[in-house]
Amino acid sequence: MNARKFLLTLSAVIIILTTSAAAVRQSKSSYDIIIAGGGTGGISAAIQAARMGASVLVVEPSTWIGGQATAAGVSTMDDMSRQKSGIYLEFLNRVKSYYDMRGKSMGTCYWDSRSIAFEPHIGQEAFISMINEARRKGTLEFLMASEIISAAKKGSAVSSVTVKTPSGNRNYACKVLIDATEYGDILPLTGTPYRAGNSVSKFINNDAMIQDITWTAVIKKYSGGVPAYLKPEIPLPGYELAKRNYESFVSADGFNFKNTYPVQMPVNFMTHNAYRGLPDSSNPYNYDSDKENRAYITKTVLNWGNDYPGTYGWVNGKKGLPVAYLEDRNLRLQIEREALIKTLHFIYYIQNELGEDWSVADDEYANRILPEAARTLPREWQELARRMPVIPYVRESRRIIGSHTLTSQELAYNSLSYRDGHTSREFPDAIAIGGYILDLHGANTDADTEWELDETMRHQELNRPRGPFQVPMRVLIPDETDGLIAAEKNISVSRLAAGTLRLQPITMMTGQAAGALAAVSIRDGKRPRDVHPMRVQWELLKSGVALSLCHYSDVPPEHSFNKSVQISNMYGIITANEYPHAPSFNLQELDNPVLEMAIIRGADKGVFGVNDILTGNEVIKILEKAREVMKIKGAEKITVNKPGNTISRSDFVKAVCDAFPELKTMKPTRKKLPFKLGKNRNAEYAEILGLLGVLDAYGIENEFHYGYPVTKGEACDVIVRACIAVAGE
Questions:
Q1: pTM of the model
Q2: Are 687 and 709 in contact (CB under 8 A)?
Q3: Enclosing H/E stretch for 299
Q4: How many CB atoms lie within 10 A of CB 19?
Q5: pLDDT by residue (tens digit) across 453-487?
């Protein structure tokens, strides 16, 4: 994309966002859902909720959307899950379509062509297109360069917020407030108990430590030489110390990456560029990050060696930043200014010590408004700062205290589901799947961990996930505040667990789940904490999100029963014929020969038995388990005719209604049946279930065949849908 086209695209984005902001100022004062923060979690939550018909207002402090993935310039995806789904996959597909049309690879980072990277402005364009499509189903509006400064409650529930906008303060009512800020800034405004570092409110220790931040930069090669306005002549104060730091990371005669870890330091500039390499729309040629192509990379991200405070630590040798960074806005601004300067030092080092014709990319940010952290810089440096990401990369925020705090030990245990001879260790209330190591940048000593959660730094390796893992819904909901949902790095987890749940793929997934939870809460007229997870899981599954860690060869993703089978897996409703038995693996190893051989043998997939014919006794057992899952007590005993024989659909629909008596009195959710009812002694039960959507699987048939036998797949789908219907009452 040339500079003129980029500016036109940027203008279009600004028009889209500012137009919606103007509409907000002129009209609505109440929304179903207000989302604080338009980052990865906030945008995903907004899109999902709007698609479900909710009215949504997003309040974003910066002038960009997309958070860490775009606004902060971390557009090299940290994805080790081997699974992609939902809004995250949709987003990647849109970005991939852009590069495919131009014959460009997205595999430009981490020294591996199987990686995923994109230019931040292309990522923002993808988000904008998804937002515009979501607006067709619900209300989705934005207030940019705006921030929630206070929140009001009715009883224990959040009821409204005050927003500081460029045109003054405005009040907005809401049914649900989602905190998707980079810092967890809504938590203290709502009086929600939270963790910060290893301390807990109301006794926050400002001297406790959290992870480093990084103010990244997208830089590119200027084949004709760096323009004078992007090559300052005089270094900023403190450069000599920064120079010594960068000499230990990158040098002109540094080492090549040899596809082995740990990386031998310092590396040469070519190896550095291939670590966070990006596709380059301004370059007509294609490249990826494989060894033979690294020299041709012309755009990369500075996000290595410029963590702040990084190598030299904070005060008294402590690594990381103090919790005061989150709590004190003045200190936050000071720290972010220093982080920005540290990266500007890096650019000066590249130009003057390495002699490279690289500088900030002139086709990325081009900010009209200088970031506040850059406003005191010398004028010649402000030109670079205008082309820097608009926000820093924040790795750790405040975290809500939920009814449950997810720990690294639980993630490791969960990740062993169906591996190394284990069967299910799935979270029944899973709402996302992720995969990453327990990664802390600074604040990584025993003194910084949470001993009360049984975590010390030895658990960083001991509890390393052995495969993809799930995130349970309960960690999105604070223990005390109603009407508030967490959607970003602020969920109810330990510090070590937060180290693996802070990356772009998983925050998109938890954000999408937060949006679904909020929309279901409003639709069902319940507090988020009272919404049954199945109601949210079903919406996510319908939206293409993968939730179960178990995969079957006879129930592939496109199978009509795949969604209900996933729920059955998580709750243990139906026993499969055979479960997967893949080996565990190191998430950092993309090439694991043992795992690859297991995949070739099919050991990563089990057999559900989707077409097996069930007997009456088998159906009774399944229904009893489903009632146990739904905590239905005191119901009558389930009986069928000739339980030892194959069960017919006629007897099956009656058994389902007997197992869940509530179904008989529920209000229909369908205006007409999906099939011809016909005559049968149990036709009334087929009608009840059909009008509730429980028998939608039979909608492909012209009429309901009462005498047909019931397969395991059919039973799974009908019973899971019955559970979901009951959960809505």
A1: 0.96
A2: no
A3: strand 299-301
A4: 12
A5: 999 999 999 999 999 999 999 999 999 999 999 99
DSSP string across 429-454: TEEEEE------SS--SGGGS-GGGT
Instruction: Please give the structure tokens belonging to residue 366.
Output: 């081009």
Provide the pLDDT for residue 17: 53
Structural element, H or E, at residue 330: helix 329-352
Q: What is the CA radius of gyration of the chain?
A: 27
What is the pairing mode between strands 393-394 and 321-322?
unpaired
Q: Is the predicted pLDDT of residue 519 greater than 60, yes or no?
A: yes
Residue 310: pLDDT over 90: yes
Q: How far apart are CA 433 and CA 471, in angstroms?
A: 6
Amino acid occupying residue 301: V
Evaluate if residue 260 carries a pLDDT over 90: no
Residue 332 in 3-state DSSP? Answer: helix
For the stretch 152-185, what's the b/e string if a residue is b when 16 or more beta carbons lie within 10 angstroms of its beta carbon? Answer: eeeeebbebbebbbeeeebebebbbbbbbbbbbb
Residue type at 137?
A: K
Mean pLDDT for the chain overall: 94
How would you write 65-117 as a 3-class SS string? CCHHHHCCCCCECCCCCCCCCHHHHHHHHHHHHHHHHCCCCCCCCCCCCCCCE
User: What are the tens digits of pLDDT across the range 600-624?
Assistant: 888 899 999 999 999 999 999 999 9
DSSP state of 478: B
Tell me how far apart the 2 most distant CA atoms of the chain are, in Å: 90
Q: Are strands 168-179 and 484-486 parallel, antiparallel or unpaired?
A: parallel
How many angstroms separate the CA atoms of 474 and 403, rounded? Answer: 7
> How far does the chain reach from its first CA to its final CA, in angstroms?
53
Average pLDDT rounded to a whole number, residues 318-330: 97
Report the C-alpha gap between 103 and 98 in whole angstroms.
Answer: 9
What are the structure tokens assigned to 351, written together?
A: 């130009």
The tens digit of pLDDT for each residue in 362-374 reads 999 987 788 899 9
Residue 27 pLDDT grade (very low, low, confident, very high; cuts 50, 70, 90): low
The amino acid at 589: E
Q: What's the pLDDT at 1? A: 41
- Type of residue numbered 421: G
The total number of residues written for the chain in this structure: 729
Cα-to-chain-centroid distance, residue 256: 33
The one-character DSSP state at 218 is E
Torsion sign, CA atoms 275, 276, 279, 284 = negative
